[in-house]
Amino acid sequence: MSIKIGLLGFGTVASGIPFLLKENGEKVLAASRDQLEIAKVLVKDDEEKNRLIAAGNDYNFVTNVDEILNDEEIQIVVELMGRIEPARTFITKALEAGKNVVSANKDLIATHGKELISLAQDKGVAFYYEAAVAGGIPILRTLANSLTSDKVTRILGVLNGTSNFMMTKMVDEGWSYEDALKTAQELGYAESDPTNDVEGIDAAYKAVILSQFGFGATIDFDDVTHKGITNISTDDVAVAQELGYVIKLVGDVREVESGISAEVSPTFLPKNHPLASVNDVMNAVFVESIGIGESMYYGPGAGQKPTATSVLADIIRIARRLSDGNVGKPFNEFRRDLPLANPADVKSNYYFALDTPDEKGKILHLSEIFNSEDISFEQVLQQKANGTTARIVVITHAMSKTQLKAVTEKLEAAEDFTVVNTLKVLSN
Amino acid sequence: MSIKIGLLGFGTVASGIPFLLKENGEKVLAASRDQLEIAKVLVKDDEEKNRLIAAGNDYNFVTNVDEILNDEEIQIVVELMGRIEPARTFITKALEAGKNVVSANKDLIATHGKELISLAQDKGVAFYYEAAVAGGIPILRTLANSLTSDKVTRILGVLNGTSNFMMTKMVDEGWSYEDALKTAQELGYAESDPTNDVEGIDAAYKAVILSQFGFGATIDFDDVTHKGITNISTDDVAVAQELGYVIKLVGDVREVESGISAEVSPTFLPKNHPLASVNDVMNAVFVESIGIGESMYYGPGAGQKPTATSVLADIIRIARRLSDGNVGKPFNEFRRDLPLANPADVKSNYYFALDTPDEKGKILHLSEIFNSEDISFEQVLQQKANGTTARIVVITHAMSKTQLKAVTEKLEAAEDFTVVNTLKVLSN
């Protein structure tokens, strides 16, 4: 008997699934035990349906989701439409109809995952979404299945391929942000509206999901502070290089004494850190834990085949559990009450780039301001004094977010300093 | 009710398990569902027992394995003794007694795994060994659970921490092999007899196991050709650097048209390859596949806590399956008939370092020899001509193992060339 699947959407990722079923059919069948059959595919309208058929796609295309939801033979619904609606409604209805669901929709899972996970539990069906974080990297199942014995203390991730491509060009080739964005758009890595990628929103969605699997925490998207790469200048990149760092957009989820902290921000990474050599559109998740210590999981963060591979791994897992009779287990069973961390408890080193009049005594004044908030310097560089303006660059020792806020306010109030940029620094 | 565990051996790794149970008890209990209890610990003799008790270890130490094998309450036996005997006999008896077994013993699994796996199957019990390959890196479970949907075409791995530490010192600091070995021994990374590490034997054990999980193949240890790092000179390292490579000991398992090929050898890795920045005692497994494309799994290859974390993950998985009533599933279900590859089908680029009299016409003669075997040069460097002897370095285009053998024989027969070294080159 075959296991019948209904696909919602037939875009790039969905069309990667038939490729794997064809090229890897023997292994997939051995693993899933029953033949997997794409029984119906939902498309938008007759126009799309006719176009796909004309292009040689031999599927049972339907334009009304009810044809899938009411089909009792379909046991697995795979949502690959993206965005919030109508995906949210369709998944909800599929779960309510007792169907197992696979999705790659990080936006939806990060913002409405809680209710969908809970509904799946109530209905005793599976709701899996390995592809939602870091595309082809099997990080969620690894956290859920292998790191069960370990206590994760921090997850650092290069989680957005588009911004990582851009930062790689800015770091390795000295390109400006604007040039990097233009090329990313030309290559199809960035959309015409690149906001989600370059502002760290996409990475923040993934940080929400990683905090569930790594820490058992249920945090909201709004609990993840995010800062993008839009104001990284060639000056920032050059000074980072000079000091032995590369700048990347990094998701950072960690547990401190008071609770959990999650943020996405451009970060100075020491050149010898494993994340520092994750380049172009590749992603990586770096895990710090009390048992393993440091481990990293590296691979493509997006793309047709990598994402389809993760989706198909979820489908196979459901098929196996259907035959074992235990399909209702949650994707992630690790859950605990973990409050949001107190900002006074979340400490990092920071980089400050400041402009100041090219006059005597400015570094003294700057030292007084930082000292008044109990922050000490690790490195200070004075650059580009031109008789009028000087650029001062500071790398601080570890300071809390509370200290960061306080010192930033003082610097902004000080008439002789302009804060050009402030970035987190991962210490060596 | 608790799940009772019998430990065979209480060395470094074993004593890491209580650490995790203490520091991560809540998560472990939630995952395993039942409390895990170390009921008995086998030690060698009364002397060791008394020493451990005197050191404050509060376990039920026994000196006769039958006390564990005949204890019907013990459901899981964890073998952490290492070497072949008596581990092989004890595991066999434990499986025969219907106990689930966890082991970290790569030597044993690579050489006698087949019979133990088959016995576990017959008895309907689990036999897991995540820690046997790359210590803390959860690579086996990832291959078995997540890469089910993908077809692996090649696995490249930095699989031996000791030799990687040595190669890192030789590459980054220009140390000689002898100095690197001496320091590795002083730091406790290398044993007084370092053969297994430096000759690639340890890595070859791991390659056997990776070929099972990645390719479904059952190959023998003797099917893995292995070559160590003992004859890598500072000259080899320097010329690699000059040409944009680093040398590491790399396990290489790949499927070619005629079958599977597995070998361990010092390998020129392009500097921008993700494996090239895996340094010191760290391990990494780089997977090429038709779906994900390229992915890498990085972490500590050995050490008390990392290895104990993998062992405990296996124990938790067994505990869960005991409560689900499906404990008898094999660790790796992927199996198929895959012959050993025909050497004519296994192609790589190669580096040759040759000494020749410092006379005219030698590169011409060398070209004739390679050309006669249909091998072309990618790069040729003449170095260190001193009026008497010249060193010629060649990087070839891809050639088969058959061609390698033939050309090496011709070079050795030629009176004017001495083959100083031949190493595999991973092409860019």
TrEMBL record, chains A, B:
Catalysed transformations (reactions): L-homoserine + NADP(+) = L-aspartate 4-semialdehyde + NADPH + H(+)
Q: Which UniProt keywords apply?
A: Amino-acid biosynthesis, Methionine biosynthesis, NADP, Oxidoreductase, Sodium, Threonine biosynthesis
Name the domain of life this protein comes from.
Bacteria
Positions that bind NADPH: K106
User: Mind telling me which InterPro entries this protein's record contains?
Assistant: ACT-like_dom_sf (IPR045865), ACT_dom (IPR002912), Asp/hSer_DH_NAD-bd (IPR005106), HDH (IPR016204), HDH_cat (IPR001342), HDH_CS (IPR019811), NAD(P)-bd_dom_sf (IPR036291)
User: For this UniProt entry, which segments traverse the membrane?
Assistant: none
Per UniProt, residues of the ACT domain are 351-428
Molecular function per GO: homoserine dehydrogenase activity; NADP binding
BP GO annotations: methionine biosynthetic process; threonine biosynthetic process
| Record-listed L-homoserine binding positions | E191
The annotated active site, in chain numbering, is: K206
Name the cofactor(s) required for activity, per the record: a metal cation
EC class of this enzyme? oxidoreductase
PROSITE patterns tied to this protein: ACT, HOMOSER_DHGENASE
The protein's annotated pathway: Amino-acid biosynthesis; L-threonine biosynthesis; L-threonine from L-aspartate: step 3/5; Amino-acid biosynthesis; L-methionine biosynthesis via de novo pathway; L-homoserine from L-aspartate: step 3/3
- Enzyme Commission number(s) of this protein: 1.1.1.3
Q: Which family does this protein fall into?
A: Belongs to the homoserine dehydrogenase family.
PANTHER family with a match to the protein in the record: HOMOSERINE DEHYDROGENASE (PTHR43331)
According to UniProt, the name of this protein is Homoserine dehydrogenase
